[in-house]
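Section 5: illustrative case.
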C-alpha cells in the first residue's frame, strides 16, 4: 500500500492513497491516528487531508489502515466496559476531530453481549444442505488458505471492499495461530466437501488467562442458513467450555447478523463509526 506518515510531538496519522472505492470512486484512507491533545491531532489531520487533495484524490475515509482487512472504525458510543480482544481502540477525542474537519459518519457498527445460556438455546432448523464441523487444530496454513478464498468471495459485494493477496492475508493471520482455540472455529461443508461458510471465535483474552467471555469475531457464508448454524455451533461449544458470555463483535448495522444477534437477546454495549469526506468542486 502507498502510505505516508504525518506526525508531531503529540499526534500521528498515516495516509493511504490507494484505499478501497467509495461509491465507485477512488478513495484515500487515514489510519493509525493517535493524539495526546486535540491541537496536535488537528494539526496532523489537516496535513493528511491536504496531502490527499494535493495527490489529486477527492474522497477520504477513516479511520482505516488502508482497507477493511486491517483496523478501521472509531468507537462512537460505549457503556464504559473494558475493550475486548482485537477491538478498535477507544479515543474519545478522535471522532469529534474528524467531524470538525468536515467528515460525516458513512457506516455504523456495534458489538453486543448475550448470556451463552440464552444464545445456545436458539436452535436453527435441521438441514441436509451442509454439515458443521469444528476445526481439528491441524494444518493452520491450509485452514487460512480456505478462509481467504471464501472471504474473498463472500465479502466482494461489501462496501469498501478491496482485495488483497493470499500471501498478505496469511501474513496477517498466521501470527494469530497460537491464540486460536480449535473448539471455537467452525466450518460449514456441503455434501461434496466444498466450503459453504466459516466462523472464527476466540476466548476474550483481554480478560486474562481465564476469560469468562468468548468472542464471535468473524463469520462468512456462501449459502443461506449456514451463518445461523455456525453461530449456534459456536454458542453451544462456548457454553460447554465454561464461558458464560458471548460477544457478537463489530457487526454492521445493516447486516443480517445484526438481526440474528438481536433475536438471540444480545444487548449492544458499544457502537462504532466509519467516516468520510468528499472534496467539493
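Designed sequence:
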Amino acid at each position: 500500500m502507498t502510505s505516508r506518515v504525518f506526525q508531531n510531538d503529540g499526534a500521528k496519522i498515516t495516509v493511504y492513497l490507494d484505499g478501497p472505492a467509495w461509491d465507485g470512486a477512488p478513495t484515500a484512507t487515514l489510519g493509525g491516528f493517535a493524539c495526546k491533545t486535540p491541537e496536535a491531532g488537528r494539526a496532523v489531520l489537516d496535513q493528511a487531508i491536504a496531502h490527499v487533495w494535493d495527490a489529486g484524490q477527492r474522497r477520504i475515509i477513516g479511520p482505516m489502515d488502508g482497507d477493511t482487512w486491517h483496523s478501521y472504525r472509531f468507537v462512537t458510543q460505549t457503556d464504559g466496559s473494558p475493550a475486548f480482544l482485537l477491538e478498535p481502540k477507544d479515543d474519545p477525542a478522535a471522532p469529534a476531530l474528524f467531524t470538525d474537519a468536515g467528515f460525516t459518519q458513512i457506516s455504523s457498527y456495534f458489538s453486543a453481549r448475550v448470556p451463552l445460556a440464552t444464545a445456545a438455546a436458539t436452535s436453527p432448523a435441521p438441514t441436509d444442505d451442509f454439515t458443521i464441523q469444528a476445526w481439528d487444530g491441524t494444518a493452520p496454513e491450509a485452514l487460512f488458505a480456505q478462509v481467504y478464498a471464501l472471504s474473498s468471495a463472500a465479502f466482494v459485494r461489501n462496501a469498501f471492499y478491496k482485495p488483497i493477496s493470499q500471501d498478505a492475508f496469511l501474513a496477517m493471520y498466521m501470527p494469530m495461530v497460537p491464540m486460536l482455540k480449535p473448539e471455537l472455529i467452525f466450518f460449514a461443508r456441503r455434501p461434496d466437501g466444498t466450503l459453504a461458510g466459516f466462523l472464527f471465535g476466540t476466548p476474550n483474552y483481554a480478560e486474562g488467562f481465564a476469560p469468562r467471555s468468548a468472542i464471535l469475531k468473524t463469520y462468512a457464508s456462501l449459502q443461506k442458513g449456514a451463518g445461523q448454524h455456525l453461530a449456534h455451533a459456536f454458542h453451544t461449544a462456548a457454553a460447554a467450555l465454561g464461558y458464560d458470555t458471548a460477544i457478537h463483535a463489530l457487526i454492521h448495522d445493516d447486516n443480517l447478523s445484526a438481526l440474528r444477534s438481536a433475536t438471540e437477546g444480545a444487548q449492544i454495549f458499544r457502537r462504532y463509526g466509519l467516516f468520510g469526506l468528499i472534496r467539493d468542486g
